[in-house]
């Protein structure tokens, strides 16, 4: 273990107090969430009952697609409300004694200054006798020196298969503590991480304790901030709700396993790019339970540019979508299946976005529209409550954590979902690409070109529509297209501007003067 | 200056005898001055009695009216006398300014002599006499006050006696030669004589040895001119309280009751007159510049004497009334008013209460509470006026209202609570004039110049209109031309609005006439005042930048401009509503009594303006309750806040209580008329095709009107189709925590409209933006907030604001000049075009029938009748048929078609021309 105090060695934004809490909000917020959920469910049913009538069919194919998309979104909305309806914090359980814990930190080409605070913090964990191991798949001498510098074990394998899962499995053969903690190399754990989590493993049926992922660079970077906001929505009300229903799953970092459970399922699955999700399914099929502690006990670095974000989302989308067939076949209780399906199928929302963007373009250019037999005001009366309550549910349940930029970023990532779906259907193997921990400075048009293309089409359509005719019907579709333009433009904006000096300076961990 | 403590303590005997000596001294002063006052009163009474014998009845009536006007002119002098009695040294330098003010007023009266003569019904010579009296009025008040303050009671009495002496000599002499005008000039000369006597006495006092009972007043601990000004205002208010009831009664009561009350007032005035000098003498003895030698007594004994004298005089008068009211009435006003005998005692008690209130007010002012006295006085005046307007129908009711008001005022002044020891600032040397000082302070405030410029711009923009009156405005013009009582009765039985705006308009019409610009001027001013008010609201709610943006956006805001150009209550409603929200937030944040009181007053005025005010007021109070509960939950409860809120509710209820019978009468009349009015209930619902039904488009239309003003149906439908853009607003709110003040403003803006939307399912007419018009300025405030939080950097803020201003301006231009705007009715233009070809003997026929008011306004000379009642042979000359198409229903359109066909059959094919929303057929 390093003898140099952590704060004196490497002052880093990941060492400060987190600016967000995953804990359950006060009961008025929970009550409001439930109320909004019930109202939203009623509104959704009302909307669908209005839509699903023979007289509403305009262009049949478009109507069919619209119905599929709306059903998909309604299912997800109902799922969100169902998940968030139960939200309570697990009572803290102190751990007994000082168990042994192996702390594994997989590394693959990350900069030493990113990894070092993690290693130091891992060595300073309280509440257990920890043995830290740096699992270097990059075979870096600097990383080896880092490990030795801080008294951590340096593990390198000669055969690189299975990406991160394979790296961990290889390390598991060389460590034997009854508990295993895994941290991504950029996620610095708080000293009381084990004190706050090990107690949950006193229940012999619990295989895994997961804690939130939070990005310490959220306030300094636009993309990281939006990504952190998305994480806050998942690791806040959604994770709490899943945990209340016993359906929380492993998220890849900031977690503690029972070694026996890992051995029972043969370690991390190496065939998926989202090995964590797959591992959770396997554990639960074997009867193990998971636990979620809604406390930010480790802080990492979120993606700081669009390319990093897209890479991360692609990996998650591919992994989750490819797990859907296994999910449907898994021997899990129905509520667990539904919960996992909701999470996995989230990465199909890009298709609905694509459809919604296409509809005004089709209407303006060809005149075809999906819905007939109803005026725009009738549509508004039935759609607006459902849409408004869905947004309100997100706002209330997230307690303000989910932001406009997060929404825009997710919206602008539609093409990732589409691409991932196509790749999964074509059974193309995915590559495990490490999310870069440092943002690139230049323009990143390639990372957002599909959205840029969509923008161009939408803008051209708007101009064409306004030039050709300004009837109320056209204006209505122009307005919809304009909304998509604004949201897309907001989502892709970080890729179209160079990062400011302040962002770069604040994002990089700083070295203390020797 | 207070006396220095004696170096040698007095002996016990001397100490015991001092209070008695002080009482005697104080009583002596009071007796001297009161005696002079009574003698002067008798002298004036003799003058009036002799003038009645010398002059013809009509001339005597004119003289009586002139004397009443002269009394009114001297009304501010009463306040000046009180102020200068309090701080004679402080206000003495104002003599020159007072003289200039009087001279300027005199010049103005001379210049406006002709119109004033027409308005008052007095000959020009009498108006000129009034002008001659004006310069002396403020000087006389000032000098008398100084005399009170410096203890020159002898000079004071001589001055008091000089006035009736001049009237009796000069006045009567001129009356025999020049009639009433001569008597009037004599009365004017009386004031000058009184002034000269005082000035000569002041000069003699400066030359001769200093009297024992006075010394050069020091000003080290004076209340300052601000306190003196407040004292003056307070005493003016009390004087208004004295005379207001007879003025209002004359307007509201029938001739018999008005005469009875005038008789009562004459009797009651004796008590008020007799006790008028008590507070002034008290001010001289008790004020910080007290003149008295300590050996003559301090302020405690003076106060005891004064209040004792007031109470004693009242008690004596009431006792006399109880024992011999009929004899008293007979002696003063004759047998004709014997029926008022039962009311004499209560009214004398009321006047006695006024006398006691004056003494108490003097005591409070001397203790440095002049501002509170002024505020209390103004509130009492307003309450009395409102109560009289709402309740007074007989002489007895007027007496009851006066007794309650005056009694409550006296109690409020006597109550020991709430009168904390005031901090008395030292008189600054040299002290600038009060109002100039206030103006300078205001001008130095941040954004003062910006606001001044924006407000001026707003006035100019709102004055720039050629818009014709529409139906509601013409109805208002007809109503306010009635006598006040008749107007209130008309409103009670035919209208559905409270009377405040109509009362304001009534006064404006009396002053400025019924020209379009005059009738719309109050709305113009209220609408322009909304600019700084909105600034103040946003400054209180958010920050200075948001306030600036809100003020800038308010200037060209089309909806705000529209109702600033309409002679209806909507501009006033918006101004009061915004002010109320401002006061509410200030109250909840700071907890000050003043803010809570301001909120109550604004809320009451809002309800006095339009009944729908109950909706935003309910929202405000529910929000207040929720806010206090939340504070309690957070452990930040402040019970003083709760108490003051409840107190403000009580004040609000007290201020609106007089409206209850008025509302009852209106509801009863509304019910008797059957469902709906015969008037167009809402131009929006009937005139626009966009918002006919209760649909989402109706909601969108009202929202668009609030933000962008009124436009043609085509424009509105197209704008409504852009509703998806509102989704961006919803999305932009993700992740933002709204402050409680933002939620409050949003609730006050939206909830009333939502409530009316629900109610409108049973009565469609009710969902109309005018009935929740407060939404417009509040939404503007929220837009300003969105701009300042959404724009990053000053450049972005400037661009965004400029863009919105440009958009608003474009919308304003379209609203004002686009002839297809369904709310633009050009009756004026139609009548102007008619008059180009009209000849004597021509007639008007119109549909619907309620166009009579607006056509009578623009074409008063041309006879008109509803189209349905006009036969082709009824009019010898041409028949002009004027139709406002958008007001027609299917059934009435059919009947009009039949009528037109009959006319065409009889007179041949007509010529037709159109003005915006008005069609005219000309049948030769």
Describe this structure in words.
The complex is a heterodimer of chains A (514) and B (924). Chain A is an alpha/beta fold and 514 residues long. Chain A has a domain at 100-302: Spore Coat Polysaccharide Biosynthesis Protein SpsA, Chain A. Helices cover 55% and strands 8% of the residues of chain A. Chain A is built from 19 helices and 10 strands. Chain A has helices spanning 6-9, 27-51, 60-85, 112-123, 141-149, 163-172, 193-197, 222-244, 259-265, 275-285, 306-329, 334-345, 349-366, 376-397, 404-412, 414-425, 445-468, 472-492, 501-507, and strands spanning 100-107, 129-136, 153-155, 179-182, 188-189, 206-210, 214-215, 255-258, 289-292, 298-300. In chain A, strands 3-2-1-4-8-6-9 form a 7-stranded mixed beta sheet, with helices on both faces. A 3-stranded mixed beta sheet of chain A has the order 5-10-7. Residues 507-514 of chain A have low confidence and may be disordered. Chain B starts with 11 loop residues before the first helix and ends with a strand. Chain B is built from 39 helices and 5 strands. In chain B, helix 27 (614-633) crosses helix 34 (740-759). The radius of gyration of chain B is 32 Å and the shape is globular. With 924 residues, chain B is mainly α. The A-B interface holds A 229, 376-378, 380-381, 384, 387-388, 391, 394-395, 398, 400-408, 470, 472-473, 475-476, 478-480, 482-483, 486-487 and B 695-697, 700, 717-718, 720-725, 727-728, 730-737.
Secondary structure blueprint with pairings:
The complex is a heterodimer of chains A (514) and B (924).
Chain A (H helix, E strand, L loop, with lengths): L5 H4 L17 H25 L8 H26 L14 E8 L4 H12 L5 E8 L4 H9 L3 E3 L7 H10 L6 E4 L5 E2 L3 H5 L8 E5 L3 E2 L6 H23 L10 E4 H7 L9 H11 L3 E4 L5 E3 L5 H24 L4 H12 L3 H18 L9 H22 L6 H9 L1 H12 L19 H24 L3 H21 L8 H7 L7
Parallel strand pairs in A: 1-2, 1-4, 2-3, 6-9, 7-10
Antiparallel strand pairs in A: 4-8, 5-10, 6-8
Helix pairs in contact in A: 2-3, 2-14, 3-8, 3-13, 3-14, 4-5, 8-15, 10-11, 11-12, 11-16, 13-16, 13-17, 13-18, 15-18, 17-18
Chain B lengths: L11 H43 L2 H17 L1 H12 L1 H4 L3 H17 L1 H8 L3 H10 L2 H15 L2 H55 L16 H29 L2 H20 L3 H9 L12 H35 L7 H26 L3 H22 L3 H20 L19 H11 L3 H16 L7 H10 L3 H11 L5 H13 L3 H26 L2 H11 L3 H7 L5 H21 L2 H17 L4 H20 L5 H18 L2 H15 L9 H5 L8 H13 L4 H9 L3 H8 L7 H20 L15 H16 L3 H24 L9 H11 L5 E5 L4 H7 L5 E3 L12 E5 L6 H18 L3 E5 L2 E6 L1
Parallel strand pairs in B: 1-2, 1-3
Antiparallel strand pairs in B: 3-5, 4-5
């Amino acid at each position: 273990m390093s003898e140099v105090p952590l704060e004196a060695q490497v002052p880093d934004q990941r060492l400060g107090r987190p600016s967000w809490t995953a804990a359950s909000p006060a009961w008025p917020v929970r009550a409001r969430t439930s109320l909004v959920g019930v109202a939203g469910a009623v509104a959704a049913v009302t909307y669908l009952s209005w839509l699903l009538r023979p007289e509403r069919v305009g262009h049949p194919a478009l109507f069919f697609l619209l119905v599929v998309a709306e059903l998909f979104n309604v299912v997800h909305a109902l799922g969100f409300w169902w998940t968030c309806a139960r939200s309570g914090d697990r009572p803290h359980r102190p751990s007994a004694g000082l168990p042994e814990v192996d702390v594994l930190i997989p590394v693959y080409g990350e900069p030493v200054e990113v990894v070092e605070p993690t290693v130091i913090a891992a060595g300073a964990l309280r509440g257990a006798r920890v043995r830290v191991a740096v699992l270097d798949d990059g075979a870096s001498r600097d990383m080896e020196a880092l490990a030795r510098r801080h008294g951590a074990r340096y593990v390198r394998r000669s055969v690189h298969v299975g990406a991160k899962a394979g790296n961990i499995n290889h390390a598991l053969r060389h460590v034997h503590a009854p508990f295993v903690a895994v941290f991504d190399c950029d996620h610095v754990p708080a000293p009381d991480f084990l004190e706050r989590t090990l107690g949950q493993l006193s229940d012999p049926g619990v295989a895994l304790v997961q804690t939130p992922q939070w990005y310490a660079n959220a306030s300094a970077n636009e993309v990281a901030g939006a990504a952190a906001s998305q994480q806050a929505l998942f690791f806040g009300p959604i994770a709490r709700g899943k945990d209340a229903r016993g359906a929380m799953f492993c998220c890849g970092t900031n977690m503690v396993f029972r070694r026996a459970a890992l051995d029972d399922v043969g370690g991390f699955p190496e065939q998926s790019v989202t090995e964590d999700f797959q591992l959770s399914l396997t554990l639960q099929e074997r009867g193990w339970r998971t636990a979620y502690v809604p406390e930010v006990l480790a802080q990492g670095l979120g993606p700081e540019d669009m390319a990093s974000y897209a890479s991360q989302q692609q990996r998650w989308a591919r992994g989750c979508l490819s797990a859907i067939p296994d999910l449907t076949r898994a021997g899990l209780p129905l509520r667990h299946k539904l919960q996992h399906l909701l999470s996995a199928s989230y990465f199909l929302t890009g298709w609905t976005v694509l459809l919604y963007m296409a509809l005004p373009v089709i209407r303006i250019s060809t005149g075809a529209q999906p819905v007939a037999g109803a005026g725009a005001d009738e549509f508004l009366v039935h759609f607006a409550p459902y849409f408004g309550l869905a947004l309100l549910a997100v706002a209330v349940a997230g307690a303000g954590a989910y932001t406009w930029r997060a929404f825009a970023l997710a919206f602008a990532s539609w093409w990732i979902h589409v691409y991932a779906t196509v790749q999964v259907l074509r059974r193309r193997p995915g590559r495990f690409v490490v999310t870069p921990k440092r943002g690139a400075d230049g323009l990143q048009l390639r990372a957002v070109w599909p959205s840029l293309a969509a923008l161009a089409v939408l803008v051209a359509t708007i101009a064409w529509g306004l030039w050709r005719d300004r009837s109320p019907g056209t204006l209505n579709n122009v307005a919809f297209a304009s909304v998509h333009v604004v949201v897309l433009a907001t989502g892709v904006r970080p890729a179209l501007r160079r990062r400011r000096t302040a962002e770069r300076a604040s994002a990089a961990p700083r070295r203390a003067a020797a | 200056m207070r006396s220095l403590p004696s170096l040698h303590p007095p002996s016990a005997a001397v100490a015991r005898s001092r209070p008695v000596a002080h009482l005697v001294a104080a009583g002596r002063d009071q007796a001297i001055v009161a005696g002079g006052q009574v003698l002067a009163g008798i002298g004036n009474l003799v003058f009036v009695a002799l003038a009645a014998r010398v002059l013809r009845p009509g001339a005597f009536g004119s003289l009586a009216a002139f004397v009443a006007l002269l009394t009114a002119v001297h009304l501010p002098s009463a306040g000046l006398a009180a102020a200068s009695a309090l701080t004679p040294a402080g206000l003495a330098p104002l003599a020159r300014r007072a003289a200039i003010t009087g001279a300027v007023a005199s010049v103005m009266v001379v210049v406006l002599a002709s119109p004033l003569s027409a308005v008052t019904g007095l000959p020009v010579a009498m108006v000129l006499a009034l002008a001659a009296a004006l310069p002396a009025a403020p000087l006389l008040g000032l000098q008398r006050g100084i005399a009170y303050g410096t203890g020159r009671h002898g000079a004071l009495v001589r001055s008091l006696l000089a006035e009736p002496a001049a009237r009796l000599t000069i006045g009567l002499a001129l009356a025999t030669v020049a009639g009433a005008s001569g008597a009037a000039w004599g009365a004017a000369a009386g004031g000058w004589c009184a002034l000269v006597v005082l000035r000569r006495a002041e000069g003699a006092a400066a030359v001769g040895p200093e009297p024992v009972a006075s010394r050069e007043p020091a000003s080290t601990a004076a209340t300052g001119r601000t306190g003196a000004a407040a004292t003056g205002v307070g005493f003016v208010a009390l004087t208004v309280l004295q005379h207001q009831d007879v003025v209002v009664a004359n307007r509201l009561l029938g001739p018999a009751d008005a005469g009875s009350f005038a008789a009562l007032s004459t009797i009651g005035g004796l008590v008020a007159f007799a006790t008028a000098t008590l507070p002034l003498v008290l001010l001289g003895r008790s004020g910080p510049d007290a003149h008295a030698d300590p050996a003559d007594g301090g302020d405690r004994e003076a106060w005891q004497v004064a209040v004792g004298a007031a109470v004693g005089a009242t008690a004596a008068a009431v006792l006399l009334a109880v024992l011999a009211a009929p004899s008293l009435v007979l002696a003063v006003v004759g047998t004709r008013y014997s029926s008022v005998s039962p009311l004499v005692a209560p009214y004398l008690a009321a006047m006695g209460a006024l006398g006691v209130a004056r003494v108490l007010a003097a005591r409070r002012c001397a203790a440095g509470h002049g501002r509170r006295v002024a505020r209390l006085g103004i509130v009492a005046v307003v309450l009395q006026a409102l109560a009289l307007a709402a309740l007074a129908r007989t002489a007895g009711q007027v007496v009851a209202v006066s007794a309650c008001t005056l009694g409550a005022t006296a109690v409020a002044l006597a109550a020991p609570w709430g009168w904390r020891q005031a901090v008395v600032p030292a008189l600054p040397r040299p002290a600038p004039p009060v109002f100039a000082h206030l103006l300078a302070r205001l001008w130095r405030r941040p954004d003062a110049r910006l606001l001044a410029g924006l407000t001026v711009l707003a006035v100019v923009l709102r004055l720039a209109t050629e818009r014709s009156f529409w139906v509601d405005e013409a109805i208002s013009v007809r109503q306010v031309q009635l006598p006040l009582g008749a107007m209130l009765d008309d409103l009670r039985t035919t209208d559905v609005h409270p009377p405040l705006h109509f009362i304001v308009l009534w006064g404006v019409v009396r002053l400025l006439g019924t020209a379009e610009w005059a009738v719309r001027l109050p709305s113009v001013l209220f609408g322009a005042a909304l600019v700084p008010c909105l600034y103040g609201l946003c400054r209180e709610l958010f920050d200075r930048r948001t306030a600036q943006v809100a003020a800038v956006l308010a200037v060209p805001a089309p909806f705000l401009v529209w109702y600033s150009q309409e002679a209806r209550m909507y501009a006033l409603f918006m101004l009061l509503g915004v002010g109320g929200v401002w006061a509410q937030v200030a109250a909840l944040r700071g907890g000050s009594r003043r803010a809570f009181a301001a909120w109550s007053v604004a809320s009451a005025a809002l309800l006095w303006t339009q009944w729908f005010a109950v909706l935003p007021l309910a929202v405000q109070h529910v929000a207040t309750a929720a806010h206090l509960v939340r504070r309690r939950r957070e452990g930040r409860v402040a019970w003083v806040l709760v108490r003051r809120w409840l107190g403000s509710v009580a004040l609000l209820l007290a201020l609106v209580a007089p409206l209850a019978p008025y509302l009852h009468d209106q509801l009863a009349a509304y019910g008797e008329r059957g469902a709906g009015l015969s008037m167009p209930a809402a131009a929006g619902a009937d005139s626009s095709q966009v918002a006919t039904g209760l649909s989402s488009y109706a909601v969108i239309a009202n929202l668009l009107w609030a933000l962008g003003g009124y436009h043609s149906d085509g424009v509105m439908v197209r704008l409504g189709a852009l509703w998806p853009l509102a989704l961006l607003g919803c999305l932009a709110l993700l992740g933002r925590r709204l402050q409680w003040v933002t939620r409050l403003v949003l609730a006050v803006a939206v909830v009333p409209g939502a409530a009316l939307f629900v109610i409108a399912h049973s009565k469609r007419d009710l969902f109309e933006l005018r009935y929740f018009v407060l939404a417009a300025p509040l939404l503007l405030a929220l837009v300003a907030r969105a701009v300042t939080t959404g724009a990053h950097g000053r450049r972005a803020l400037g661009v965004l604001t400029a863009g919105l201003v440009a958009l608003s301006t474009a919308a304003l231009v379209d609203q004002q000049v686009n002839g297809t705007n369904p709310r633009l009715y050009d009756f004026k233009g139609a009548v102007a075009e008619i008059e180009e070809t009209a000849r004597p003997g021509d007639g008007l026929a119109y549909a619907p029938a309620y166009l009579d008011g607006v056509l009578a306004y623009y074409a008063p000379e041309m006879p008109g009748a509803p189209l349905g009642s006009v036969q082709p042979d009824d009019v010898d000359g041409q028949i002009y048929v004027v139709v406002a198409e958008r007001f027609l229903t299917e059934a009435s359109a059919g009947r009009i078609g039949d009528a037109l066909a009959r006319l065409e059959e009889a007179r041949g094919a007509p010529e037709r021309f159109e003005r915006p929303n008005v069609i005219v057929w000309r049948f030769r």
